[in-house]
Design a protein that fits this description.
With 474 residues, this protein is mainly alpha-helical. It has a domain at 86-188 and 220-322. 72% of the residues lie in helices and 0% in strands. The chain has 22 helices and no strands. α7 runs antiparallel to α8, α10 (192-204) packs parallel to α19 (387-404) and α10 (192-204) runs antiparallel to α20. Keywords: Membrane, Transmembrane, Transmembrane helix. Pfam families: Na_sulph_symp. One of its GO terms (molecular function) is organic anion transmembrane transporter activity.
Length: 474
Amino acid sequence: MRAVVSPQAVGLGVSSLILLTGLFSKPPAGLSIAGQRAIMVFLVALVLWLTRPVPYIVSSILSVTLLYALGVVESFAVATTGYASSLIFFLLALLLLGNAIADVDLDRQVAQQLLRAETTPQRTLQSIAGSILGLALVMPSAMARAVTFIPIVEQIASEFNYADGSDFEQAAFLILGHVNPIASMALMTGGGMALVTSEIINSTVRSISWVDWALLMVPPTVLLYVLATVAAIIFTTIGEARQQNHEAAKTTDSQSEGGGIAAETTQSLSREQWIVAAVTGGAVVSWIIGSFIGIPTVLPAVVAVTVLALPRIEVITATDAADVSWGIIFLIGAMLSILDAMQTTGAIQYIVDLLTVLVPFGVLAQWQIIGVLLAIAVGVRVLFSTGSAAIVVALPIVLEFGGEFGINQLYLALAVLLVVGSTTLLPFNTTAVLVSMDHGPLSHRNVATFGTVMMVLSVIVAAGTWLIYWPLVT
């Protein structure tokens, strides 16, 4: 009987091969030794993160150490710059805030409201998706929304008596991870990708106001969000059988005392729930105001966590801090460090230049050029852990090509945002997907396959909006 090689063993073998190849081969023309080794560390980290032969914390520490040990950066402090990013502390604060919501059962109260008029898993998913879309108008962080709704989804799945990994959970976590970030593109102040895109448009194309942005982006964003939600439900094949299981679960629950979450009457909030709700609401209001007057996004989250940890409140304790998903935080910090090293050594520019040199733009029709430019933007997107970072690198180059070939640069910039903001092929491409995958039943294959579906939907919506809607409002 032949022994089966585990994915973890394959990952160790492939990462070791990449490391040896990068160390003992000459870099191609136009790429420095440091740039080659930066790409090598990125590939090693990518393989280790995908196959997980060691915990995320270990592979992340190894990756930043390799940046220093191999001479890619000049000091260990530079190798770990990703951990000094405000994103790391923002993520940590949001995870703690999400845990606080769950600790005081505020998530159960919200779930109660979501299920009061819902009788099927499909309608419940629609209610969750609608709530996230509405919350996006006041909470400019897909990560914050995902962390807020993860315990709610888990509670609802429990009340439906679904086993771990059910179709309902898969659909819900696809919505939280893949679909949820789309909502951030509707408003200029909706998130990092929208802000970065608007700044590039203002500096290279034309001035665009908050109202202009809403007029241009709200309709296509909502359309794409709705299509993606429907796709998530279809993708996980929630159908008649699941409804029958749900009805059976409802019957069982109705026979027990108290019923389920949908059967309970709405209870008044406890003191701790009021405190958490007020503090969370204050953070949301601060995010709204801060988006106009320049308050750093991380500040309201850190203040909220601090208030909830104060004496006589103590909703957040040392135990909560220990229970945070530290592996994800270390992974994101390492990814930011690697990408910074790739930018500093010219590795990112080399990759982008290589992609642009290989494409014969001169013989292509305009729609084909647009398709190629969007493909280049998606290719760059795969290299980054945040959509805003990918847009910073890709959008100026794409707009330069667009201007040279007479393509409407405003439409092109917005189309790039729609496609890049909707494409997540690897878990670390979007923090909301990464956290949803960590908490939910999603596999790497689920993430990549549904990410491809999302990319196709975004291209269709962008093309239709480009041809029909944007010409009407500009």
